[in-house]
Amino acid sequence: MFQSVRSVASLLLSTFFLLTAMGLSGYLIPIRAVAEGWSTFTISLIATGYAIAFTVSCIVTPRLVLRVGHVRVFGALTTLMAMSFLLHSLMVHPVIWVLTRAMAGFSIAGAYMIIESWLNERVSNENRGALFSVYMVVSMSAVMIGQYIVPFGDPLSASLFMVCTLICSMAVMPTALSSAQTPQPLTQVKFDVPGLYRRSPAAVIGTLLAGVIASAWGGLGPVYATQLGLTTTEGATMLAIAMVGGAIFQYPLGRASDRMDRRRVMIVAGFIGIAACAITISFGVDNRIIFFAGMLFLGTVLFPIYSLNVAHANDHAQPDEFVEVSSGLMITYGVATMIGPVVTGAAMDWFGPQALFAVIAICFAAYSAHAAWRISRREQPPEEMRSDFLAMAAMPDVTPQTAELDPRSDPEYGVDPEEDTAGTSAGVV
After folding, report:
1. At what angle do helices 262-283 and 201-227 cross, to 10 degrees?
2. Which phi and psi angles does 411 have, rounded to 5°?
3. Start-end of H helices in 37-189
4. Is 58 within 8 Å of 334 (Cβ atoms)?
5. Integer angstrom CA distances of residue 363 from 213, 264, 354, 411
6. Helical H runs in 228-354?
């Protein structure tokens, strides 16, 4: 295990710097926008610009890499990201920030894909699961550390944007100086969302709702915290606690979904989300202990439901279709992340900050209701066709290369090598 991690240490270090910068900027930009007096709907457009560009980059970046190579594209994307942070500090205007946030979204998606493809080249099927877990831990830790940098500076000054630029620039060095062999071309996004819906409606609708929930939380959670008077440290803690809740609860949720109809677990997850939102709306932030407990409770289902959707979709697919299915869900998720902030931002302008949790609760209710309806329409797949649930980082950003790195991308994943392969070709355990 140690040797495997050591072989990709430079790539993990680049990942750490990139996501620290993104964690810092993702928290800093909304609270600075609130301080500037911009409406919540205006701030939501900044988050939407990021989501649109992120999804577009997943389609465009593989073509750029084919033309000029991984190292050059990675350097260009990281430079573009650093430029976006500098422009945020130089030109404080909503329209400019929509464009500069889109620059960051395009850049980080492409950088993710290149790093993940590099990691994929350096792992074997034997250590893929362990390294995937390490990658998820590094990603989550970096984002949380970035968020906790904000309290050490003044969001109204340019200093934190400068720090963000410096950290982002540091991400170039480990990869540029790495002796790792250049990987194969990036995975081209192939998807058939209508076909995926016909195969697994619960997974597609669930992914749409998961995208709305995650993007509303990620884009406007800091706005909620700031408008209700939380300090920057408390706001960072709010975001971090939700991520920790997601990381801790994925395992029991996944184990439960592997042992029963996943749609029943979806129903329970939806009710947990509704209850957590109700607690937050009822008690607000006046009692910090209850509030943070509510955030931990919300986090247990906030991000894990995406992993649940992926596992359910793959219950209805062949083992060698994992990457294609995941790419289709990624596009679905990307579209939803464009919608979530705009709808939630408008609701928060009309009804106040607590509308954030009202919208999230409505989405969780729809998530449960649709899963319950699908149970009445279709039996669960037979045991031999069911895939494994695998926890993913408690973060909203996924790319096709994440699916390639996932252990389930190996068609032999979960198959007992001592069994007759002719008799077990139907699927994975």
Report:
1. 20
2. -55, -25
3. 40-68, 70-90, 94-122, 128-149, 159-170, 172-176
4. yes
5. 7, 17, 15, 34
6. 232-259, 262-283, 288-302, 304-315, 322-351
Look-up of token digits 């409505």: 362
280 class by beta-carbon count within 10 Å (0-12 exposed, 13-18 middle, 19+ buried) = buried
In this structure, are residues 183 and 96 in contact, taking their beta carbons and an 8 Å threshold? no
Would you call 134 exposed, middle or buried from its count of C-beta atoms within 10 A (0-12, 13-18, 19+)? middle
CA distance 372 to 364: 12
Interatomic CA distance for residues 255 and 192, integer angstroms: 29
User: Residue 123: its pLDDT value, please?
Assistant: 67
How far is it, in rounded angstroms, from Cα 169 to Cα 228?
34
Contact assessment for residue 62 and residue 190, using Cβ atoms and an 8 Å cutoff: no
The token pair at 54 is: 């992120």
Predicted confidence at residue 227, as pLDDT, reads 94
Q: If we measure between CA atoms, which residue out of 388, 392, 240, 367 comes closest to residue 322?
A: 388
For residue 341, what are the CA distances in angstroms to 111, 295, 305, 337?
Answer: 24, 19, 18, 7
pTM for this entry? 0.87
Q: Which helix (H) or strand (E) holds 405?
A: helix 400-405
What pLDDT was estimated at residue 306?
Answer: 87
DSSP run (H or E) holding 360? helix 355-377
Beta carbons of 377 and 76 less than 8 angstroms apart: no
Geometric angle at alpha carbon 167, from 181 and 186, rounded to 5°: 35
Query: If DSSP states are collapsed to H, E and C, what string results for 17-29?
Result: HHHHHHHHHHHHH
**Residues 168 and 17 sit within 8 Å (Cβ to Cβ):** yes
- Residue 32 to residue 222: CA distance in whole angstroms: 10
Read off the DSSP letter of residue 285: T
Instruction: Say which DSSP state 393 is in.
Output: -
Low-confidence ranges of the chain (pLDDT < 70): 1-5, 7, 123-129, 176-191, 319-322, 382-429
For the chain, how big is the Rg over CA atoms in Å? Answer: 21
Please tell me the predicted confidence (pLDDT) of residue 37. 94
Mutual orientation of helices 304-315 and 201-227 as an angle, nearest 10°?
170
Burial level of 145, CB count in 10 A (0-12/13-18/19+)?
A: middle
